[in-house]
Write a structure and sequence with these properties.
InterPro entries: Amino_oxidase, FAD/NAD-bd_sf. By secondary structure, this protein is an alpha/beta fold. The protein has three domains: 175 residues, FAD/NAD(P)-binding domain; 73 residues, no CATH class; 93 residues, Alpha-Beta Complex (Polyamine Oxidase, Chain A, domain 2), CATH 3.90.660.50. Helices cover 33% and strands 23% of the residues. The protein contains twelve helices and 22 strands. A hairpin with a 2-residue loop joins β15 and β16. α1 runs parallel beside α7, α1 runs parallel beside α12 and α9 crosses α10. The longest helix has 18 residues.
């Protein structure tokens, strides 16, 4: 793209999806301007320093597929400098010593995820292999059926149910049945393809700092403390935004604030907000369908408990534990096993995640107490210090749409695309899904131009 042909893109929001898109657009020759209403860059993928610990604004300093996954691959293509330490083994699972137990209070053992199958009956081992192969070769193609509902037709085992919910809760902030079987198999396929998780050396902030550097190196700008209050639409085409009270023309508008939030600030042919959506809804079934999808969008909520320990919690080299027999916590990451610099000398930093049901948000204090009790039950002999509890829901959710229910990057308005946690790619866990969604958006943009 020559200087005469250079087009302008405005990106609303500086979360990971927005910055990845801005960096790629800038590298592709676009003039890029990013506007962020907060003073913080990075959204839920930034660091917070607390008493010498590098906490995060939401994420776990973790990349779900590590050095071979979509995020790491895209960062390398962009020229980012970063380091990821793979978890080895990929994960361990905390199981009760007596499998008739329903919690950890009477003792437990930690096993590699590879050894979990030893706890299964011969029949269920065979059935799991057959179902997996059947899906891989295309003989089994379940679509909207919930994952647990589907596999329970063939396998009945409380341990499998618990581990499925533990994985889904840790990775997606859902139960195993709130995810479709197709989406879950796509997730498993990506685990086989790319591998397991790794921890970012330096935490989330290293990626954000590199993306900011890349955007700036190509002439792009990032403006903080500046809210985009309007997306200007003329003849069903986005032509710019109003940011900080000023009208800014653009050839392309990217929303990293969600589908709903972008739609609410669309000003269409001079008609704003809710009125604008009614104007569009009356004019085309396409707009009606879009609004119905927005109304049906269900965000996932989660709760993160961060604690410090004087001793290592997980085996050296391993950074992920799934906890299927806890009351609330689904899994945890000991990030200092990969990067001791994320905590003061001699300290270990652990981040726990638990799915929070949408109908339990009014009892969030109770949910927190149940999570804190889990920490006590799982590590009764450790000197634990609770550092921080974070709750993510509403318009600051874990995901704006349950995994598998994202409805893509496009909107009914041309030149207005959405990226981020409501536009994840198929089979993408959290930030990997965001990256796959950004890649999908870039394909749309390149096809348009």
């Amino acid at each position: 793209m020559t200087e005469m042909e250079q087009k302008k893109a405005v990106v609303i929001g500086s979360g990971l999806g927005g910055l990845l898109t801005a960096a790629q657009l800038a590298k592709d020759g676009w003039s890029v301007e990013v506007y962020e209403r907060l003073s913080l860059i990075g959204g839920r993928f930034a660091n917070i320093e607390y008493n010498g610990y590098q906490m995060s604004t939401g994420a776990l300093h973790m990349v779900p597929h590590g050095i071979k996954g979509p995020l790491a691959t895209m960062l390398r293509e962009l020229g980012a400098d970063f380091d990821i330490v793979q978890s080895d083994p990929m994960a361990i699972v905390r199981m009760p010593k007596d499998l008739s137990q329903t919690n950890y209070k009477d003792g437990f053992e930690d096993i590699s995820y590879l050894d979990f199958k030893k706890h299964l009956t011969s029949k269920n081992k065979v059935m799991m292999v057959l179902l997996t192969l059947g899906f891989k070769v295309g003989l089994i193609r379940p679509k909207k059926t919930g994952f647990k509902t589907w596999y329970s037709k063939y396998i009945q085992d409380d341990r499998i149910d618990r581990c499925a919910d533990s994985f889904a809760g840790w990775a997606l902030s859902t139960t195993a049945d709130e995810v479709t079987t197709r989406e879950m198999f796509e997730i498993f396929h990506n685990v086989y393809r790319y591998g397991g998780p790794g921890i970012l050396v330096g935490g989330c902030q290293t990626v954000i700092d590199e993306l900011v550097r890349i955007i700036s190196s190509y002439g792009g700008t990032i403006t903080t403390d500046t809210e985009v209050t309007k997306i200007i639409v003329k003849d069903c085409k986005a032509t710019g935004v109003v940011a900080g009270g000023k009208e800014i023309a653009a050839d392309l508008v990217i929303s990293d604030i969600g589908h709903k939030e972008a739609w609410e600030i669309c000003t269409i042919d001079g008609v704003e907000g809710e009125c604008a959506s009614h104007v569009l809804a009356l004019s085309s079934s396409v707009f009606k369908d879009y609004e119905e999808k927005l109304d049906a969008m269900k965000p996932s909520a989660g709760l993160k408990i961060c604690f410090a320990s004087d001793e290592r919690i997980l085996p050296e080299g391993c950074s992920l534990m799934l906890t299927p027999y806890s009351n609330r916590i689904n899994g945890l990451n000991e990030v200092t096993n990969a990067d001791p610099g994320l905590a003061p000398p001699g300290k270990h930093l652990v981040m726990c995640h638990q799915r929070t049901a949408l109908d339990r948000l009014s009892e969030i204090d109770e949910e927190i107490e149940l999570g804190l009790q889990d920490v006590k039950d799982m590590f009764p002999d450790k000197n634990i210090e609770i550092l921080m509890v974070q709750v993510h829901h509403g318009r600051w959710p874990v995901n704006r749409a349950f995994s598998g229910t994202d409805f893509g990057n496009k909107t009914p308005v041309s030149n207005l695309l959405v990226v981020g946690d409501g536009a994840k790619g198929e089979g993408g866990i959290e930030i990997e899904g965001i990256t796959l969604g950004v890649r999908d958006a870039m394909k749309i943009i390149r096809d348009m131009n």
